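User: AAA family ATPase. Structure?
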Amino acid sequence: MHCFACRSAIDPGDSWCSKCGAAIRQRVDPDSERRFVTILRADVIDSTGLVAELEPEEAVSRLEPALAAMRGAVRQFGGIVSKELGDGLAAVFGAPIADDNHAPLACHAAIELVRRVRGLGDPGLQVRVGLHSGHVVAYMVASEFSKVYEIGGAAQHLAARLESMAEANQIYVSEACQALADGHVRFEFLGRKTLRGFGEPLPVYRVMGASDLSSWRVRRARSVSRFVDRTTERALLWRAAERVSAGRQTVLLIGDAGIGKSRLVHEFAQDLRANGWRLVDVECSPNLQGAPYSTLKRLLQSVLEAAAKDRARAADPRAELQVVHQRAVDAVLDVPISDPQWDELAPHARGRAISDASCALVESVIRRQRTVLLIEDLHWIDRASDTVVAALAGLQSPDLLVLLTMRPNGMPVWIARCHAEIVAMRPLDDASGLAMLAEMLGPATTSADLKNRIISHTANVPLFIEEVCRSLKDSGTLLGQWGDLSLVRPVDELGIPSSIQGVIAARLDRVSRQERSLLQIAAALGPRASQGMLRKVAALPEDVLQDCLTALDRAELLVRIDSELEDSLEFRHEMVRQVTYDSMVEKVREGIHASILASLESDEAWADSPDTLCYHATRAKDWRKAFHHGRGAARKSMARSAYADAVDYFEIALGSLDKTPVTVSREADAIDLRMEARLAYTGSGRVAEALDLGREAERRADGIGDIGRKVAAMTMRAGAQNFYGTPVEAVVIGEEVVRLADSSGNPGWRNLAQYNLGQAYFLAGRYHRAKEMLATARAHLAGPAASAPIGTTPQSLLVLCCMMGSITHTVMGELDAAEQLQREAAAIADETGRPYDRVAAAYSGGWLKLGQNDPAAAAAILEEGFVLAQKHGIRLFVPVLACHLGIAYLEQGLFDRARRILAEAREEARAVGYTSAVLRSSIYLALATHQLGDLQAAQNMLREARNTARQQGFSGLEAEALYGEAVVTPPTSEANRTVILAALRAAIAIASESGAKPLLRKAETMLDGMLAEGDRPG
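Assistant: Predicted structure:
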């Protein structure tokens, strides 16, 4: 630790530097948290030039008025000055208490800041301002003498870059800030600008002034949904309206932001106007909370406007008031007053006069027509207006309905005195939420799943539903017009639109620190938690825990649910959980997840849930445990043939292990893990990555000098080579690996090496050698000392040996032997029940039925295997099953169906990198294409397949391609006959050498027919 002043070394416990005597600044950040805020940066342009020639006292005197003006503007709109910079400042809006209006407030503060500095009358003092909305880390920095609220993160740098780019007395804002404040503030788009430190040009806007639109008009202009439901609330409002003839009625609608208060009251007010009522309405503004009588001024303007529209009234209603009350109204409306009597009134007397005048003015309007006095967003009312509104709500006048709305964050005390009826607004029910979504997205049933997800995600809060849909449309996930939108790509996460981040954060700030901590633990646990687990992790006294849970349930943040699971709790909607979780800094998150992990590990009930343990270990950054549980979750996924899931967990385990200290033991674990993961990667069709795993394992084995693990890694690489490389390469490495594995004394890896080599011989067209090697491997695996390497079992490896052996015998025409091996493979697959084993058995079963000239039976077996492979993500088998299914259709004369599935097989084989499957599907696709009349395309495909097979050493496939060329070439000319005869003779030569007797017989029969036809006299 070092002194901030002289950089001398100091002890952690020191309060003062022993060298220079400076107090030690210590960062205290137990309350550090992530916040979504708007940052304001402002400075005086060319301040250095202004004060360069001045004495220090004069320099301070020159700049201080501008700094004071800046501070005042920030504080007027609820911002906090987080740092003063000598000639400017940095401020934050929306922290430490969240405010969903942080962006409009910051814009208004910036406008006021520029106005105040200009008003100083010093032409040399010109300012520039930059604004940006984004996530920051907020924390307190404490020293011996002060505390400062600091913010950190990239967001503040963008605000600073915008400030430095701005012109004199101009305010530049980011796109994020503009999107949040649009409607409340007017902007001009300046285009995309290159900002220092940012890779790509960013959109930049200039503030042109404050908008005169009310908050309701801004929301209404953005709204894309229709009014739905609210039957109960509307009935309560109508009941109150019907009672006004007997006396004033006051109704308070209370509910969280976005619940639909404004929508309801304006819909209701329009209904009243249609029935002859007069509407006097006003909104309390978050921008004017610090301005005395700001709400009352707008209310009186609305009253006078309503009176002016009354044709039966000729005179201004103010003329009916006492003189002192006229002056009171003028004072609120900022009309100049030259009246000594008014000037002499004490402040409290003026306040009383203003209240009495307002009541008299409203009563004057009411006498002529039933009136609804609508005052919205009471939570933002200024203190002076609040006193007057209390008096208005208590008027004992008939034909007056006072309709108020507010959020549940502190009800005024006068609400009870005026006997207001309180209506608590609730979210929509599911039917109404779906009706709202049908209006926005359209009635298409194809988006039914998305609609249900949105309902669950938003808990039917209207604003949240609308903003989530808007976010999906803006991102291009939904295309079209409102009311007719189409989902064009899958939706992984619905996310939280920035427009409602602050709304939710403000709700969270209403709970106590202890309740917030409990909510954070619940957020880390997931969408649903149990009281038992919360009790264990939070370690709170039972009475405190229950008090917190009751408060959170009452606030509808974490609610108790009816469930068979005892003491179940869940978040009211997913967005609350996400905002809660995102508000935690990394250090806090890690600590909570570590506590959860320890609690879960101590509970035997969670022993069979390695996926959950892995999640918390990873989030806790306990890398050793993340490796252990990740491997456990991967093994569990492998057991149910969920290869894609297994790959995800293996990757977590691999990454976690590599974050632990380097030791020989760690490297051994890393090698073993890569070898264990091989089947997950190959099974899910990620063959190239499996090959890379083998190479990396081999490199690490060399690094620690482990010969046994090197041989195992080479065996793994050899297996991947069968799919991703050429047969020549696969045979060379396969033979070397079998020799090394045989001498290494590890029978499991030897058995796998022999299977891999048998498969390599098959791909090379060396069927006799393939049969011998597969028989050797099978004998080892069927014996009493059967052994398999890590990541598989002797039974599963035996299924593969029987599968490959049956296919080899089928290709050689030895159908009895093939059938015996197929029965063995099917029996083992039935016994294990593993989808991978069943798919393997289906593959060889389809081959056998094709060899037995029963394509219909082959198709039935292959279709079942194909569906199973797709269902479980066993992608390695998908192209070969599809290919042989296409062959079965072809042999049944279903040419169009054959062409479709063979084309799919070829594309899937290319995607996987399965070279032999690409060639085989191309050969039979050509035959199907020929049957459908496109001779030229068929010939081109066969010629390309034959050349590729010859170049890469797939001699068996070369023979099949040659035979196919002979089949599709019409013997209409001597040149074509020559081509056919050459192709058949070449195919016969290869088939004869390889032992592919069925192909040999077909080629010889065709050749004999061609020669016999040529010998006939013309």
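Residues 1-7, 19-30 have pLDDT under 50 and may be disordered. Residues 403 and 445 are 40 Å apart (CA to CA).
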